[in-house]
Structure to design on (1714 residues):
């Protein structure tokens, strides 16, 4: 079972974007986010240091406790980590520590690691109508058979790029760049 | 809207996730300085633009971000195959003969 | 409120729920379940509109979406009509009535019954096909002033809305195993079969109710139940299946590549008081593994003189009105046909107790069973009999008959009738099959084109592929449904349905019906809406229009809002006769999407206003807005343009901002700059290849300005690049160029230099950028910086440090300048950017500084002669053109664009070069884009030497300054040139393009 | 041949229009022609017309694989304007603009040239700079073009939404008043009739399948679906199919063929007075004399010869139209189609000689060649007849891609059409 505990709803004002009986959209609290690039060897070492191995299968996610590694491309992963403490501050220190630990573990094997904690924000879309709401703007088959729990992909949300991760049968996480969030939220609120 | 299968993600996705990259297998010369103006113009601008099978580049820009190549028929817009960047161009004439049968 | 044509019982309308609506301002009553057409007919209103060209009175011809004539403007209420919110050109046959609905007839003035435009009908001998190509050419100036306005006013149909639409529209992307288009017996059977096989099914029908022809099939039975009951059960079964999506009022309007289909669902127009949360319409964009087309067949009119008069309608439509809506469209009804099905319309109506005046059949020997039954019902039957015309302008009063023989047609008397039902047989509805690029096969024995082999994962079923008979159609649908489900990976067996009744039978007619009338005087219409007659088609052929595509365009047949659904086959047949060519050789015109017209709002879906495009704001945006900043659009971003204070206009504000930066300090939001982090052991090598500059030797902690070319050698982007570590660079790009630059880099990296170990990550939104520029910049930031030595020696111009501000906020501090002043760019996390900004702002304010916007930034950099990509450059400019040869790594063997720079024209003499311009009078501000010439008042057609790229009032120079691209410009420094303007040339001196601090001493201050 | 006029129309009406003859013949191909033109679009037919009329070259055939005017000429949004940026383009398009003024009279065929004005909207500071540069350049060249404030733009085109609170507010517009639209089919038909009158053979349903050459490399004729046809000179004017035809002569071209879509609404009473183009929101719009809103959509990104395109191109265009003209949201799309446009790297055409002696090419008009039809035919006829370019088309060589002397309208303004 994928872990959704990684994403905690934000408690700030306006964090609830949509609140209907059959679907809710909520802003998620900040996370440490790292973009990791490299080959399988690098990924292997990075995974060991990170605490969640980097999946090699396309569109796969590997959540482990407060960590998750998401496959975004054959040499690209998005690493997510929560600090474990409740708060609305971006965990820079955690990001920094993770960067250092992973960099040390991978060593001189060619790779790239970039802190993108602040670049992305996340929305949690949940409820029996979650897939239907997303399908107003996302052209993917979100039937559970076609897009099972655990699948993650970058895709388009009409004119915004997002990362879409199904964390449960009725729960999705939408990651997007910070300045696109009002657009994504606006369309979800209207949908 | 085309349905394109990404050889990296191994899924079919709608065209809006992809960006077209023009004709494939037009490799940038290793030593551009050695080319005369004609040859350089050939590399820069001349394209086969065929009515039929075309090996072309696509990038799964809103997906895995990777480039790959595809063979597509430019009249039916049907994809014949996709393959990863760096792999050899299939024999288009053979594919055309197969398609005709 | 009489509804005098309403039957006493029967039909699917809800007689317990009367509905009041207006037509042309008059109140009428119908019942829930009525369409506007059925309700008007119930009130014996046939005349509903005027035709396009001749303004002929027109009535209701069909009962479906193929209606060519009964087009009306519709609004929720009369008030909305009056305020310009009505939708024009809706088919009365598709509009469902609700209380308050207001419909208006179109293309008539002053009234429907008396229309001035009808003089066109009198002039019809002149207004034949293509007449306008032959006249209106003299006197020449009359075209734009007289003729064209006249033609424009006469044409068009309804009136476009004049008020912004307040309704909303929605979108849904969907996937399914089997999409079934059409919910008649074939479609229902297919959907049942597919759904029972376990497939994910979408069933769509454009009508309000599923059932198609079964909704008016009196007497037919399926599985021992009346057909309508079977439909209810079938829909019940499908509705209970969670893998089935039922979409009524939903038109499958487009069939695109790879089984991508577009559907338009009408959600609220039929409701009197819809939930405001609901959209008016919804577009469904569906990717289907398999498609079943079960779109039925469309009855074909007969082409005889005056066949367009109100009261003349399709036989099946008559049957639909009678059986489904409980409306008999006349008191005495004549039937003209060549097909069995019209006889059944006559029987159903007669059995309901109404008068059938005659059945005239073009065939010599209609089936005996039909004749017998007609006689049993007391109906007069005339075989070998053509209708040769009708009497009555705004309503049929009498029908003219003619006896057909080998020698021609002889008059056979008249029949009193206020309604004429006609049928030329059935045209299989192959639109979607054709849209899917499937070929059509001509079936001479049926007089019809049937779908040929499908090109996509698609199959047709039922009467759209010529299958007749209810049992056969159901079996065909079931077969198609199972086949589709199987192809989509499911297994099942085709259900077997037993059925009786409900076939079209045999018989058909194509093309003009022979008559005995004066051919030069009467007109038989092929395309009703566009007023195309059989004679027009023949004229086109006579004039050399031998392709059916030419005939279409010359006569406009098939180009009306019904896209020739009724007319194309008749037009084709007449053309084939005139050409002496077989029908399949002549061929049909192309079927295109949409199947029926689709609302723009539906196509636009949710894109609107702030959600039309993503609207990107920086973390500082709200602060700027609170300060009263004006914003400009750059790409998707909003950028603060200038910050007017107390009554300042833009000019004053910008001047103040510029002065302040040069005198003390200014604060600028540079967050929108693109940022890319380039990491990996080969990072420097990658930059060497992508930028013109050399990078290998750039030290860690150093910045360098980078120039990027496209492969053609022209400047594409620029920005400052910082080295964070041996293998890590922080690259900046222009705001608008960010996505393009990243794509350009990825392209080379992945497809040309995949051997390089380097990766690119966009960090545009990882960092907010606060630029602090001016002599007091250091003072402004120093109190906030935790752990970076800001002294000039420790942190010189063009260097970079990582550290913290404000007690622990991570930061990348750049010492750089785009203003010519000493300055910094503080990169901080966006989540804290506003706090940092406000803290810096507090210091800046204390120091007498200000916030400045993009306009001041432009002025400041122009004073220094720094280029803006896209302003000084336009995609045709090389580094040397803008005096930046210094940015080219001379020793590098190659970089993107290098080879192109050696092309003959790029090294030619006389290229445009960037220079400065000063107006001789020291006062006049040049206009950006103004041309520069040698002469003061050049003759028209003189070549320009170049143009002004940037021009500002420079507070620092105390005069206007300009940058320009001028042919051979650098050699012209010192020369006087001219900028010709409408009110005279402006003399300018060519100068070096640097107006402030040419030595750059202020940078290091 | 019968002259078209109101009186002729009235006279023929007396006999129920039975006496009109064909507008062009249906000749069989002769064994050889002085000039064979490949492609009976507007440009090919105009070339033949001017060859015959101005250069006395009448032994000419125009070969068309389908029906004349059925290519892009028959499927374009009919915008005619000449306010281009570069001197070379100004020369070319304004030459056409001059010819448009009297084209109906010249051809004795009403091509309905409607000088209702073409307005290009500026939505950003950058747009303003670009369009003002055009206005200044055009004024110097004597090409009509003027700058309007947002309010002036609204006065010229009342449906325009110039409120400041919309996503991309209108900051002003460039207006060319004598620009406008023309009836696309009539242009092809008028030139066909005119060329036919001079004895040009227009041969439809005749696809060129090969180009034959003499031993010295020069052209000797063309293989067609109706057999070999000899020719001293061959002009290729095949628009979207140029690469395919030039390939028959072994010449590679700097072209890509893309689907370009357009759509029309249902017809309505006059509600839109001029042509409006907006590059920032990607839409352009006019209303035809019949009443439809004629809307140009974009090109699909990939090479295709399919004459159809993706729905996303259409929806993107329509959302832009709705944003600019919110009252049109309730209007309905009646028909949506595509053409195949051949696009050059610098978005300017290629008109002139080729490396093959006797073979000439006129192509690369991309998304905007309808407006040039008369001028293009005129200078191309000159080029073929004289074996050297007219000064106006001299810069539009194939060789410019070698030298780098591009005429890049797209880079300068990113405006199509
Ligand atoms: C949707 C759309 C909108 C447009 N809007 C505008 C606009 O608003 N304004 C504007 O100025 N321009 C516009 N254009 C561009 C314009 O239509 C074209 O540039 C112009 O019509 C080209 O004319 P042509 O005569 O060269 O080509 P075409 O009319 O395409 O003629 C070429 C002919 O060559 C024939 N042919 C091809 N191969 C062969 C062969 N092997 N043998 C024989 N014949 C062959 C073709 O069948 C075709 O008939 C638009 C184009 C499209 C598609
Ligand atoms: N008068 C007659 O007797 C007569 C004539 C022809 C056929 N028939 C009989 O009628 C039956 C035909 O059944 P069928 O199922 O083939 O056709 P049908 O006409 O019953 O059903 C077709 C359905 O498709 C819908 N439709 C068409 N195009 C559509 C689109 N693009 N999007 C959404 N919906 C669309 C129509 O609204 C209709 O409900 C058979 O029983 C046949 O024998 C009878
Ligand atoms: C300016 C213009 C106006 C048009 N108006 C109509 C119209 O009113 N009705 C119509 O059905 N088609 C109209 N069309 C489209 C043509 O029917 C047709 O789709 C187009 O010429 C392309 O041909 P094709 O669809 O046969 O491939 C118009 C086309 C153009 C270029
Ligand atoms: Zn992919």
């Amino acid at each position: 079972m994928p872990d959704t505990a990684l994403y905690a709803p934000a408690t700030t004002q306006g964090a609830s974007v949509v609140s209907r009986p059959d679907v809710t959209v909520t802003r998620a609290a900040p996370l440490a986010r790292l973009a990791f690039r490299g080959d399988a060897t690098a990924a292997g070492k990075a995974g060991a240091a990170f605490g969640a191995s980097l999946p090699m299968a396309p569109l796969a996610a590997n959540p482990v406790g407060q960590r998750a590694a998401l496959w975004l491309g054959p040499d690209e992963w998005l690493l997510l980590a929560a600090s474990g403490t409740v708060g609305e501050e971006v965990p820079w220190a955690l990001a920094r520590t993770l960067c250092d630990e992973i960099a040390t573990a991978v060593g001189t094997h060619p790779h790239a690691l970039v802190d993108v904690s602040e670049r992305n924000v996340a929305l949690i879309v949940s409820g029996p109508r979650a897939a239907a709401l997303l399908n107003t703007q996302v052209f993917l088959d979100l039937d559970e058979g076609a897009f099972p729990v655990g699948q993650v992909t970058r895709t388009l949300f009409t004119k915004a790029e997002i990362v879409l991760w199904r964390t449960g049968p009725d729960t999705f996480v939408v990651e997007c760049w910070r300045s696109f969030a009002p657009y994504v939220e606006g369309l979800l609120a209207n949908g | 809207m085309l349905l394109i299968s990404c050889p990296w993600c191994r899924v079919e996705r709608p065209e809006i996730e992809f960006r077209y990259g023009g004709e494939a297998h037009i490799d940038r010369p290793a030593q551009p300085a050695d080319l005369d103006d004609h040859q350089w113009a050939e590399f820069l601008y001349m394209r086969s633009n065929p009515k039929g099978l075309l090996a072309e580049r696509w990038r799964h820009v809103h997906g895995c971000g990777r480039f790959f190549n595809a063979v597509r028929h430019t009249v039916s817009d049907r994809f014949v195959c996709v393959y990863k960047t760096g792999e050899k161009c299939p024999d288009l004439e053979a594919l055309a003969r197969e398609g005709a049968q | 409120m009489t509804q005098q044509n309403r039957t006493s019982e029967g039909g699917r309308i809800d007689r317990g729920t009367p509905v009041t609506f207006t037509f042309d301002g008059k109140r009428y009553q119908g019942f829930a379940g009525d369409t506007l057409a059925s309700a008007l007919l119930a009130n014996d209103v046939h005349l509903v509109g005027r035709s396009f060209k001749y303004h002929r009175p027109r009535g209701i011809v069909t009962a479906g979406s193929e209606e060519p004539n009964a087009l009306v403007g519709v609004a929720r209420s009369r008030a909305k009509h009056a305020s310009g919110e009505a939708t024009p050109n809706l088919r009365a046959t598709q509009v469902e009535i609700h209380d308050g609905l207001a419909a208006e007839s179109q293309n008539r003035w002053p009234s429907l019954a008396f229309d001035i435009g009808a003089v066109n009908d009198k002039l019809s001998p002149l207004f034949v096909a293509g007449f306008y190509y032959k006249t209106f050419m003299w006197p020449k100036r009359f075209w734009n002033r007289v003729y064209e306005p006249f033609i424009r006013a006469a044409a068009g149909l309804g009136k476009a809305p004049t008020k912004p639409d307040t309704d909303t529209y929605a979108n849904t992307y969907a996937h399914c195993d089997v999409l079934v288009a059409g919910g008649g017996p074939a479609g229902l059977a297919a959907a049942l079969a597919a759904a029972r096989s376990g497939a994910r099914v979408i069933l769509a029908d454009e009508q309000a109710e599923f059932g198609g022809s079964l909704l008016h099939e009196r007497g037919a039975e399926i599985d021992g139940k009346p057909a309508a009951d079977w439909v209810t059960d079938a829909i019940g079964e499908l509705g209970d299946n969670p893998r089935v999506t039922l979409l009524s009022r939903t038109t499958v309007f487009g069939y695109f590549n790879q089984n991508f289909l577009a559907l338009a669902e009408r959600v609220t127009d039929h409701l009197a008081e819809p939930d405001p949360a609901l959209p008016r319409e919804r577009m469904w964009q569906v990717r289907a593994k398999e498609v079943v087309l079960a779109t039925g067949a469309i009855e074909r009119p007969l082409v005889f003189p005056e066949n367009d008069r109100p009261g003349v309608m399709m036989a099946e439509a008559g049957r639909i009105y009678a059986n489904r809506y409980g409306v008999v469209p006349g008191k005495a009804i004549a039937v003209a046909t060549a097909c069995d099905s019209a006889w059944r319309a006559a029987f159903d109506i007669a059995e309901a107790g109404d008068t059938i005046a005659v059945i005239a059949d073009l065939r010599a020997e209609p089936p005996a069973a039909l004749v017998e039954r007609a006689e049993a019902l007391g109906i007069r039957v005339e075989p070998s009999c053509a209708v040769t015309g009708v009497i009555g302008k705004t309503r049929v009063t009498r029908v003219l008959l003619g006896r057909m023989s080998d020698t021609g047609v002889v008059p056979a008397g008249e029949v009193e009738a206020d309604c004429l039902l006609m049928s030329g047989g059935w045209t299989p509805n192959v639109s979607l099959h054709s849209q899917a690029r499937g070929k059509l096969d001509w079936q001479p024995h049926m007089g019809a084109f049937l779908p040929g082999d499908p090109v996509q994962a698609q199959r047709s079923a039922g009467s759209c592929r010529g299958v007749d008979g209810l049992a056969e159609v159901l079996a065909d649908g079931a077969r198609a449904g199972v086949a589709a489900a199987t192809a989509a990976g499911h297994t099942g067996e085709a259900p077997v349905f037993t059925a009786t009744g409900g076939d079209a039978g045999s018989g058909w007619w194509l093309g003009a019906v022979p008559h005995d009338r004066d051919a030069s005087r009467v007109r038989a219409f092929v395309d009703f809406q566009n007023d195309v007659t059989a004679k027009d088609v023949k004229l086109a052929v006579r004039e050399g229009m031998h392709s059916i595509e030419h005939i279409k365009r010359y006569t406009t047949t098939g180009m009306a809002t019904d896209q020739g659904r009724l007319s194309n086959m008749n037009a084709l047949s007449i053309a084939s006769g005139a050409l002496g060519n077989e029908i399949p050789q002549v061929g049909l015109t192309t079927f295109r999407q949409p199947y029926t017209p689709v609302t723009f709002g539906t196509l636009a879906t949710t894109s609107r206003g702030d959600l039309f495009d993503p609207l990107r704001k920086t973390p500082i945006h709200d602060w700027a807005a609170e300060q009263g900043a004006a914003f400009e659009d750059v790409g998707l971003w909003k950028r603060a343009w200038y910050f007017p204070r107390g009554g300042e206009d833009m000019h004053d504000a910008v001047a103040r901002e510029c002065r302040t930066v040069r005198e003390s300090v200014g604060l600028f939001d540079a967050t929108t700059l693109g940022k890319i982090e380039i990491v990996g052991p080969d990072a420097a090598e990658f930059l060497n290849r992508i930028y013109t500059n050399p990078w290998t030797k750039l030290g860690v902690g150093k910045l360098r300005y980078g120039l990027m070319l496209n492969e053609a050698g022209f400047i594409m982007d620029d920005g400052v690049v910082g080295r964070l570590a041996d293998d890590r660079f922080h690259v900046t790009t222009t705001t608008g160029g960010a996505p393009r630059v990243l794509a350009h880099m990825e392209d080379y990296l992945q497809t040309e230099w995949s051997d390089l170990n380097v990766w690119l990550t966009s960090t545009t939104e990882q960092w907010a950028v606060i630029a602090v520029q001016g002599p007091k910049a250091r003072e402004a930031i120093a109190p906030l910086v935790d752990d970076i030595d800001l002294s000039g020696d420790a942190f010189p111009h063009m260097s970079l440090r990582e550290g913290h501000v404000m007690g622990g906020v991570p930061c990348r501090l750049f010492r750089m300048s785009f203003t010519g002043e000493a300055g910094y760019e503080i990169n901080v996390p966006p989540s804290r950017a506003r706090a940092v900004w406000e803290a810096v702002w507090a210091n800046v304010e204390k120091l007498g500084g200000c916030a400045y916007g993009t306009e001041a930034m432009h002025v400041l950099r122009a004073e220094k002669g720094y280029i803006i990509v896209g302003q000084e450059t336009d995609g045709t400019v090389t580094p040397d053109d803008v005096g930046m040869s210094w940015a080219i790594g001379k020793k590098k063997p190659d970089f993107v664009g290098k080879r192109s720079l050696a092309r003959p024209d790029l090294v030619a003499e006389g290229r445009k070069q960037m220079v400065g311009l000063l107006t001789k009078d020291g006062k006049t501000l040049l206009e950006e884009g103004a041309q520069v010439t040698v002469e003061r008042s050049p003759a028209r057609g003189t070549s320009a030497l170049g143009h002004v790229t940037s021009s500002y009032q420079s507070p620092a120079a105390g005069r206007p300054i300009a940058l320009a691209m001028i042919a051979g410009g650098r050699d012209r420094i010192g020369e006087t040139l001219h900028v010709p303007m409408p009110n005279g040339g402006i003399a300018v001196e060519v100068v070096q393009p640097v107006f402030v601090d040419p030595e750059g001493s202020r940078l290091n201050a | 041949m019968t002259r078209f006029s109101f009186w002729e129309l009235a006279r023929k009406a007396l006999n129920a229009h039975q006496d009109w003859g064909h507008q062009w013949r249906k000749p069989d191909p002769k064994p050889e022609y002085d000039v064979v033109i490949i492609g009976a679009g507007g440009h090919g037919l105009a070339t033949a017309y001017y060859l015959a009329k101005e250069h006395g070259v009448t032994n000419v055939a125009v070969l068309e694989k389908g029906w004349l005017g059925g290519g892009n000429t028959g499927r374009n949004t009919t915008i005619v304007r000449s306010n281009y940026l570069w001197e070379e383009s100004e020369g070319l398009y304004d030459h056409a603009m001059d010819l448009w003024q009297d084209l109906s009279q010249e051809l004795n065929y009403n091509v309905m040239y409607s000088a209702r004005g073409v307005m290009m909207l500026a939505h950003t500071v950058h747009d303003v700079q670009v369009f003002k540069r055009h206005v200044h350049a055009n004024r110097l060249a004597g090409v009509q073009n003027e700058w309007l404030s947002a309010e002036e733009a609204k006065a010229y085109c009342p449906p325009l939404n110039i409120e400041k609170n919309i996503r991309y507010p209108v900051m002003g517009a460039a207006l060319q008043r004598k620009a406008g639209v023309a009836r696309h089919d009539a242009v092809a038909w008028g030139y066909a009739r005119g060329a036919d009158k001079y004895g040009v053979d227009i041969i439809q349903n005749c696809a060129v399948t090969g180009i034959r050459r003499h031993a010295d490399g020069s052209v000797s004729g063309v293989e067609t679906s109706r057999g070999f046809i000899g020719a001293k000179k061959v002009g290729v004017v095949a628009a979207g199919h140029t690469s395919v035809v030039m390939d028959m002569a072994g010449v590679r071209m700097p072209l890509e063929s893309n689907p370009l879509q357009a759509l029309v609404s249902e017809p309505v009473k006059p509600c839109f007075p001029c042509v409006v183009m907006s590059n920032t929101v990607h839409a352009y719009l006019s209303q035809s004399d019949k009443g439809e809103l004629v809307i140009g959509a974009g090109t699909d990104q990939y090479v295709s010869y399919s004459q159809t395109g993706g729905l996303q191109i259409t929806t993107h265009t329509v959302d832009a139209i709705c944003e600019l003209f919110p009252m049109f949201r309730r209007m309905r799309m009646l028909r949506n189609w595509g053409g195949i446009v051949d696009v050059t790297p610098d978005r300017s055409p290629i008109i002139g000689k080729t490396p093959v002696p006797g073979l000439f090419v006129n192509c690369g008009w991309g998304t905007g060649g309808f407006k040039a039809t008369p001028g293009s035919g005129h200078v191309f006829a000159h080029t073929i007849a004289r074996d050297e370019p007219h000064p106006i088309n001299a810069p539009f060589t194939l060789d410019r891609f070698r030298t780098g002397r591009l005429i890049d309208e797209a880079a300068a303004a990113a405006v199509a059409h």
User: Anything to note?
Assistant: Chain D has a mean pLDDT of 96. Chains D and A do not touch (no CB pair under 8 Å). Chain D is about 30% helix and 25% strand. The two ends of chain D are 36 Å apart (CA to CA).
